[in-house]
Design goal:
The complex is a heterodimer of chains A (154) and B (419).
Chain A lengths: L4 E4 L1 E4 L3 E7 L4 E2 H5 L29 E4 L2 E2 L4 H10 L6 E4 L5 H14 L4 E4 L3 H6 L5 E4 L4 E5 L5
Parallel strand pairs in A: 3-5, 4-6, 5-7, 7-8
Antiparallel strand pairs in A: 1-10, 2-8, 3-9, 9-10
Helix pairs in contact in A: 2-3
Chain B lengths: L4 H7 L5 H16 L5 E3 L4 E3 L9 H12 L8 E3 L13 H10 L2 H11 L31 H9 L12 H8 L1 E3 L11 E7 L7 H12 L4 E4 L1 H5 L4 H18 L6 E2 L4 H6 L4 E10 L1 H10 L13 E9 L1 H17 L8 E6 L1 H8 L2 H10 L1 E4 L3 H4 L3 H4 L3 E3 L2 H6 L3 E2 L2 H8 L1
Parallel strand pairs in B: 2-3, 5-6, 5-8, 6-7, 9-10, 9-12, 10-11, 12-13
Antiparallel strand pairs in B: 1-4
Classes of the chains: A alpha/beta (154), B alpha/beta (419).
């Protein structure tokens, strides 16, 4: 595995965490992603958002999700709370942009009220999202440093 | 954040562990979003959760934790629509079996009433209609979720509300305060983009809104040229148009505020000074609208299937929209020498709005004669039933199309399908 690249963002909810990544180049609509996502089978969440070609049909619960930001429904909050309970959330979220109000509230609600931490870092920049590729290995450190390596991207 | 002594005491647990946890969550949220203080909300809160499913039990547990601590939203809150209406909609035995197995609406209504729900009719995404009563005034600070209602409150009424995730609006409602950031601040309400509408006629609000959401994502548009197309129309019809446009923009993107030149309150007051320095310009033409329409996917298992149900009213229809649809459908059926609609047609509106519609005997006669249903359901929640979702359903709502398998038609094309 090559050295890869290191990016620095702001800690939203601290890690550490090491896991492979899934990348959405377009903003993610959490409600559309998770409506029917449980149809992937017990204990699995498969993206059901037909408008997101990057994620549609891919398993999202066992990965770190790299994304610009979230969009769409304010249901993001309850989507995170329910899927926290059912252990179907991504393990981490890496935002290229500053976190939006929906995602910020959602990760806090899952963390404080459901006891499920989704490690999250925001403000990683457009270059981060351009570099990230599906199946790369991400190592998130507690200071918001994110190292990406592998899967042909570096 | 700069907290008052009262807020610091709550955080320290002086008023109980649960209220401390509530405030801790709200403060953490505010700090992430760069807020420097909490500010009081005005009027009722609004939550985007109306329907209650068995799978929502963890969320109900969260609400029960609040209730168990004796917490309540003051003065009240309203909620999005319910999912089921057995009095006005035909369900198959399979659909009813699924509803019985999964729905928990009666139990949740009691929970909501204990938490401060305005009344048993307070289930609608259009809580701001006069007859519903949760209607803010210009400048009021709100704790609302439901993206379409937030968009309407900010843009058409000039209130101030951020896009609050479900759960957070309940916590802010209990505290009676929200973190002061984003659209609560004058400087953040200026437009990023001058959107010049150059269509020949008034486009479908659902298509225009969807295009705005996809093109601008979360940026605030200052829309020029729409006033030319709405000039002379009844202001209530213009507000309804903006309701539908804003809902689509909030679903396809994250647009929580738009200004319409000479129409919306802040644009009327400040004109193009609402454009921020360095704003960009974009144009919308009939070709853009048409291209977007053609890009909408048809995800029915059999794209050639005959539609079984038509859902109109996402977001909920106003009284004027409801009666206009009834009259238009009836006129079209008479022109075709047909008596009843060919597709189960459901006009979705608020319970309080439905009460006004049902008070009009002429309209109710037309509904009975042509089998047009008026219901309080949420089209989206209705389609959470997988048995229902597997059926060919059509709609004029880009928002419903975005979240479900419903197929989008413009109003005229939808009318052809219904009749």
């Amino acid at each position: 595995m090559s050295a890869g690249r290191v990016f620095k963002g702001r800690v939203v909810l601290p890690g550490p965490l090491t896991c492979s990544v899934l990348v959405s180049r377009q903003p993610v609509n959490a409600l559309a992603t998770y409506i029917g996502a449980g149809r992937g089978g017990p204990g699995k969440a498969v993206c059901a958002d037909q408008n997101n070609a990057d994620l549609y049909g891919k398993r999202i619960d066992d990965r770190i999700l790299c994304l610009p930001r979230t969009i769409g429904s304010t249901a993001t909050g309850i989507v995170f709370m329910l899927n926290a309970h059912y252990d179907l959330l991504p393990r981490g979220l890496l935002f290229a942009e500053p976190i939006d109000s929906l995602a910020a509230a959602a990760v806090l609600l899952a963390d404080i009220w459901m006891g499920r931490r989704v490690v999250a870092v925001d403000g990683l920049g457009a270059e981060f999202l351009a570099y990230a590729q599906d199946d790369m290995l991400a190592t998130i450190r507690e200071d918001g440093t994110v190292a990406l390596q592998g899967a042909g991207g570096g | 954040m700069d907290l008052t002594s009262e807020e610091q005491a709550i955080l320290a647990g002086d008023r109980g562990a649960v209220l401390a946890k509530v405030l801790r969550t709200v403060v953490a949220f505010g700090e992430l979003m760069g807020a420097e203080q909490l500010v009081p909300v005005v009027g009722g809160a609004h939550t985007a959760v109306g329907c209650a499913l068995k799978t929502h039990e963890p969320y109900h547990g969260f609400l029960d934790e609040l209730l168990g601590a004796g917490l309540k939203i003051e003065p009240y809150f309203t909620a999005d629509p319910l999912a089921v209406d057995t009095a006005n909609i035909d369900y198959s035995p399979e659909e009813l079996a699924h509803i019985t197995a999964t729905l928990r609406e009666a139990e949740n209504t009691e929970r909501y009433l204990a938490l401060g729900l305005k009344d048993r009719n307070a289930f609608t995404c259009t809580c701001y209609f006069e007859e519903v009563g949760n209607r803010p005034s210009r400048g009021d600070v709100l704790a609302w979720s439901e993206s379409s209602a937030v968009s309407y409150a900010n843009s058409v009424l000039g209130a101030r509300c951020n896009r609050n995730a479900i759960g957070m609006e309940m916590l802010c409602g209990i505290i009676g305060k929200v973190p002061c950031f984003g659209l609560l601040l004058d400087r953040n309400r200026k437009a990023h983009c001058l959107l010049q509408l150059e269509t020949d006629g008034l486009p479908s609000p659902h298509l225009l809104g969807s295009l705005i959401g996809k093109r601008l994502v979360e940026d605030i548009p200052f829309i020029a040229g729409l006033d030319r197309l709405t000039d002379g129309k009844d202001p209530r019809d213009v507000s309804d148009y903006l309701k539908d446009m804003g809902a689509a923009a909030a679903a396809a993107g994250a647009v929580a505020l738009y200004h319409v030149e000479n129409v919306t309150p802040e644009a009327r007051a400040a004109g193009r000074t609402l454009l921020r320095d360095g704003f960009r310009t974009t144009t919308v033409t009939d070709a853009d609208i048409s291209a977007l329409h053609k890009s909408f996917p048809v995800v029915w298992p059999d794209p050639t299937a005959q539609p079984e149900t038509c859902i109109i009213g996402c977001p909920h229809l106003s009284q004027r929209q409801t009666t206009r649809w009834v009259r238009t459908i009836a006129a079209q059926l008479k022109a075709k020498n047909r008596q009843k609609v060919g597709v189960q047609t459901i006009l979705c509106t608020a319970p309080d709005t439905a009460r006004l519609v049902r008070a009009d005997a002429q309209i109710m006669d037309l509904c009975a004669e042509h089998d047009i249903r008026i219901s309080h359901i949420c089209g989206l929640a209705h389609m959470l039933n997988p048995v229902t979702a597997a059926r060919p359903i059509i709609t004029d709502s880009a928002k419903l199309q975005y979240y479900t398998s419903a197929r989008f038609y413009t109003e005229d094309a939808l009318l052809e399908q219904i009749t």
